[in-house]
């Protein structure tokens, strides 16, 4: 145990020193450097930074944990998040890059020729970003509480200070090069234990193949896990339990929510040319695929090892890792029948084991009894994933306040130096709010993040798509659509995720039977998005036409420069 802690201090200390060193080296001296890293980042570096920005604590810590508990149903997260990135990279990023604005609210404000549209977009960006960053800060707290043995709240504060340092000092320039380092750390930290455990359990060094291979006992790993799950009363691991409509709704909400995420979109403004934006999008997809294709294998390994190590065993003889995680409160045993054995079962009356889904990836190397340095490596990878996304989100928040509210609306005559100071002050304020959410988290990491995607789908996606591909879309339609879509998603979230509007907070589990169309809160962004599209187009039909100059601007965004007319 001491060994793990020493290794964790060493590796976390080294990685944090690298982040701070990069921040000092890449201080932002202008608003362009602060918002978009000066627009001169290479496609390779931007591809790695985008991958790190994209793969948050939800991808690193929580996704494999979700899949390990949900089995087949967890595939919605893989399909939704991967498909969403492809949608963003191919459908929207090059056009937004050509438009040349720093932020999504800036695009919406200019495209819909309205400060009201800009303010609505800023409020939506803040809502999405704060919901998302809450999940990241919880991830930071989980890692610190276990591996550095500090209180979760103290862990969140340490994370806040580190992010604050390089986000406020370096802006997008500091964040970009820090994220390149963070990508290298998080992918190495995810793959090393996965390869180790794959060899240990199946003899195959490739986790993606190991998952479908025979184990050391000659039984296929997935077949074995199906049997173990059935014995404990759970659905078979490879069998889905969600309805088709809910699977479709969650996948679609995560996909279109991705395309509306302001912190990922802004990454495409940091390269010199539209061609570079396309190239970096393709590279980022490749970098993301390494982790996303490995996550299902990690989920299978972790679930199998957990059941084999804990279920039916004497509590007093459980390995040390169990008591270490118990101290964090994320793993708990309650001896209901007093026999001293750990009974893990689907039936809540019989189940004596509580396992927080967010610990599965972090505890996986310990359960598999891997070397101390591998366990510490996973901790530093989890921190890299959480901090990289948190920094990107905080920059969106500070840019929305300083650039879109202060410069574009309240004080157009502000100097560049004053705008830079305003951006840094708003980043400090954003970190404090993010820290509060990390200390008082509204759920486990992936669930919170899924809700942020739902909000992105309900608010930005229709306004961006119609803004690019329908030149007659006017401001009245876009504003009404964003307000209605976001309000509907918020209402559904608060009602069915947090149990509000039902005489106070009630058991959320009991609300499943009341879901509209049988769709979970994580998937409702799809419905809210369709409502947004419908409202936007209907209002557009009965209100003023778009000015000619705006229609010409949209034409210019859509047609590649120098393309000319088709000759045959």
Number of contiguous helices: 21
Decide which structural class fits the backbone.
Answer: mainly alpha
Considering DSSP H and I runs of 4 or more, what fraction of the residues is helical? over 70%
Spell out the CATH superfamily.
Sodium/glucose cotransporter
Order of helix and strand elements from N to C terminus: HHHHHHHHHHHHHHEEHHHHHHH
Strand order, main sheet: write it out.
Answer: 1-2
Mean pLDDT: 83
What global shape is seen? Answer: globular
List keywords for this structure.
21 helices; 70% helix; mainly alpha
Describe the structure.
It is built from 21 helices and two strands. The chain is mainly alpha-helical and 568 residues long. It has one domain (2-317, 364-456): Sodium/glucose cotransporter. A two-stranded antiparallel ribbon has the order 1-2. It starts with a helix and ends in a 10-residue tail after the last helix.
Layout of SSEs?
Elements (H helix, E strand, L loop, with lengths): L1 H24 L5 H6 L6 H12 L2 H14 L4 H25 L4 H8 L3 H33 L4 H51 L4 H4 L10 H11 L12 H16 L2 H4 L8 H37 L9 H7 L4 E3 L19 E3 L4 H8 L4 H39 L5 H24 L5 H25 L5 H22 L28 H17 L6 H11 L10
Antiparallel strand pairs: 1-2
Helix pairs in contact: 1-8, 1-16, 3-8, 3-13, 3-16, 4-7, 4-13, 4-16, 5-11, 5-13, 6-7, 6-18, 7-8, 7-16, 7-17, 7-18, 7-19, 8-13, 8-16, 8-17, 10-13, 11-18, 11-20, 13-15, 15-16, 16-17, 18-19, 18-20, 19-20
């Amino acid at each position: 145990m001491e060994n793990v802690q020493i290794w964790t201090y060493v590796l976390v200390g080294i990685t944090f020193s690298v982040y701070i060193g990069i921040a000092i080296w890449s201080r932002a001296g202008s608003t362009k450097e602060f918002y978009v890293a000066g627009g001169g980042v290479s496609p390779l570096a931007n591809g790695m930074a985008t991958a790190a920005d994209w793969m948050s604590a939800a991808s690193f810590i929580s996704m494999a944990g979700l899949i390990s508990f949900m089995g087949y149903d967890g595939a919605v997260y893989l399909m939704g998040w991967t498909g969403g990135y492809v949608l963003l990279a191919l459908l929207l990023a090059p056009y937004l890059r050509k438009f040349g604005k720093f932020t999504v609210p800036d695009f919406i404000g200019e495209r819909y020729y309205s400060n009201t549209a800009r303010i609505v977009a800023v409020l939506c960006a803040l809502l999405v970003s704060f919901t998302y960053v809450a999940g990241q800060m919880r991830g930071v707290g989980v890692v610190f509480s276990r591996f550095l043995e500090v209180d979760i709240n103290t862990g969140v504060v340490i994370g806040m200070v580190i992010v604050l340092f390089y986000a406020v000092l370096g802006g997008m320039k500091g964040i970009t090069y820090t994220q390149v380092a963070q990508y290298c750390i998080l992918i190495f930290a995810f793959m090393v234990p996965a390869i180790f455990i794959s060899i240990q359990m199946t003899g195959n060094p490739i986790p993606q193949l190991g998952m479908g291979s025979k184990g050391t006992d000659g039984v296929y790993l997935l077949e074995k896990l199906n049997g173990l799950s059935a014995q404990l009363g759970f659905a078979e691991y490879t069998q889905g339990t969600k309805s088709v409509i809910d699977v479709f709704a969650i996948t679609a909400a995560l996909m279109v929510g991705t395309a509306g995420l302001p912190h990922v979109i802004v990454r495409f403004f940091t390269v010199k040319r539209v061609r570079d934006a396309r190239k970096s999008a393709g590279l980022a997809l490749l970098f993301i695929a390494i982790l996303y294709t490995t996550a299902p294998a990690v989920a299978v390994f972790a679930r199998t090892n957990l059941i084999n190590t804990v279920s039916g065993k004497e509590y007093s003889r459980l390995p040390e890792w169990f008591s270490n995680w118990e101290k964090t409160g994320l793993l708990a045993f309650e001896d209901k029948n007093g026999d001293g054995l750990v009974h893990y079962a689907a039936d809540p009356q019989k189940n004596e084991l509580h396992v927080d889904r967010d610990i599965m990836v972090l505890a996986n190397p310990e359960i598999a009894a891997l070397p101390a340095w591998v366990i510490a490596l996973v901790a530093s990878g989890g921190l890299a994933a959480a901090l990289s996304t948190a920094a990107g989100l905080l920059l969106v928040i500070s840019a929305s306040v300083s650039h879109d509210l202060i410069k574009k609306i309240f004080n157009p005559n502000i100097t560049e130096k004053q705008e830079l100071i305003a951006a840094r002050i708003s980043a400090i304020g954003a970190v404090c709010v993010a820290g509060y959410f990390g200390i008082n988290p509204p759920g486990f990491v992936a669930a919170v993040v899924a809700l942020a995607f739902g909000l992105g789908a309900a608010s930005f996606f229709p306004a961006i798509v119609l803004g690019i591909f329908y030149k007659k879309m006017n401001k009245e339609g876009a504003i009404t659509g964003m307000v209605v879509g976001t309000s509907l998603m918020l209402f559904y979230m608060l009602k069915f995720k947090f149990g509000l509007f039902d005489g106070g907070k009630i058991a959320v589990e009991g609300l499943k039977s009341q879901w509209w169309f049988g769709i979970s809160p994580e998937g409702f962004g799809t419905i809210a998005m369709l409502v947004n599209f419908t409202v936007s187009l209907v209002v557009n039909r009965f209100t003023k036409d778009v000015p000619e100059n705006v229609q010409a601007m949209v034409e210019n965004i859509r047609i590649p420069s120098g393309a000319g007319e088709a000759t045959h």
